[in-house]
């Protein structure tokens, strides 16, 4: 049995032809065809070759007679606001001052949501002997389970 018949992959480090290759004679195709093919399709399109529309939405349809019917409602319309007189820039400079913000804690949340109401009730004398409000707000009437569910709702972090 001859060992020369075994097919295997190999890498050759020697140059078979000394000198440079002439790559101009090779037609290097891109994904959608060569330049010559594109020129021929632009001048005289071949009906057997489908037009490639990958990534592009159609602006019409082909009817039974193989004619393209354009639908004006299918043409994309870009709605861009008028930005004349807008003071904002299209980018943020790297020279802007760094914003340092401390961590938002439970104490901060209490100071924002509950503290103004408690201070107002204390000044107006609307607290009982234990410090509970005589006229509780909807947030104060919640049970711990209701408060937990409301805290987990979408948009609850916006106040």
The beta-strand count equals 2
Low-confidence stretches: none
Overall helicity: 10-25%
- Which term fits the overall shape? elongated
The count of helical stretches stands at 5
Structural class: mainly alpha
- Overall mean confidence score, pLDDT: 79
Helix-strand sequence: HEEHHHH
Our measurement of the CA-to-CA distance between the termini, rounded to an integer number of angstroms, reads 84 Å
User: Beta-sheet strand percentage?
Assistant: under 5%
* Biggest sheet details: 2 strands, antiparallel
Q: Could you tell me the radius of gyration in angstroms?
A: 37 Å
Biggest sheet, strands in spatial order? 1-2
Describe the structure.
The structure is a single chain. The protein is mostly helical and 159 residues long. Among the domains are: 32-74, no CATH class; 108-150, no CATH class. It contains five helices and two strands, in the order αββαααα. It has a two-stranded antiparallel ribbon. A hairpin with a 5-residue loop joins β1 (60-62) and β2. The longest helix is centred in the C-terminal third of the chain and has 10 residues, at 115-124. It is elongated, with a radius of gyration of 37 Å. The model has no long low-confidence stretch (mean pLDDT 79).
Key structural traits:
single chain, 159 residues, mainly alpha, 5 helices, 25% helix, 4% strand, elongated, Ribosomal_mL41, structural constituent of ribosome, ribonucleoprotein, transit peptide, 39S ribosomal protein L41, mitochondrial
